[in-house]
Amino acid sequence: MSRRWIVHAVLLTGGLIMIMPFVWQLVVSLQTVTESMRVPPTPAPSWQWHNFADVFRTVPLGRQFLNTVIVTAAVTAGQLLLCSLAAFAFARLEFPGRGLIFLLFLAVLMVPGELFLLPRYEIMQGLGWLNTLQALIAPGVFGAFGTFLLRQFFKTLPRELDEAARLDGANPLQIYWWIMLPLVRPGLLALGLLTVMWSWSSLLWPLVVNTDPEMMTLSAGLASLRGQYLTNYPILFAGSVVASLPVIVLFVVMQRQLIAGIAFTGSKG
């Protein structure tokens, strides 16, 4: 019994440490500029609720929120479709060089994403897509990690399903869509949630490719609130609270599916 209390105490302490940044973010968002810059810090808010209205007047936060929703939805849909197709091919179809090609896919995960910034920017510039939403969507609709994640799910399904479907006259695309895809729903949910969280908080690429505030996402728009000499931290943190809430709510609601989906990927290599 004492061991259980120790474990719970350790977990509770770790949880409190992890949520402290979010609590401090909320506290500062309700302070004045002077209070936010005091040393030592002021631990209590002065309830400056107008900071949340001011952030909408400072930057086009509503438009940026809509941009983020559109980009996140499109990237997530692309990841689920394209990664599941590639994962199905690597897991269920036999073709020459399958193992080598898959290893090359995984090798992409070892390359820092910053190395792709310049080539991607030149491609978007050549297409005339700078300061557009498609420049934010196109590079994220496919990924090696999503392919690997879903491949692990497809490999857990028995081969008899493919054989039975072929005997009934189904082609590979029909097997993928009508039989395999519904059976890997936990993996699709896990990949979808991870993609939503990644796309929603993506900062570097949106800052590089879009300079028009009307075409920015929330993360890039909030980054523009940082001044060279002075930053209005209450307004910046108020915008951060608004931007963080949808993802936090989504994670709290879907955390069981996310954890179960990721844990299940290791059941078969």
From TrEMBL:
Pfam family, one: BPD_transp_1
Domain ABC transmembrane type-1, residue spans: 65-254
GO biological process, one term: transmembrane transport
Protein localization: Cell membrane
Cellular component aspect of the GO annotation: plasma membrane
UniProt topology in membrane: Multi-pass membrane protein
The organism's place on the tree of life at top rank: Bacteria
Residue ranges crossing the lipid bilayer per the database entry: 5-27, 65-88, 100-121, 133-154, 175-200, 233-253
Keywords on record: Cell membrane, Membrane, Transmembrane, Transmembrane helix, Transport
Keyword Lipid biosynthesis: no
Protein family per UniProt: Belongs to the binding-protein-dependent transport system permease family.
Protein name according to UniProt: Carbohydrate ABC transporter permease
Species the sequence originates in: Nonomuraea zeae
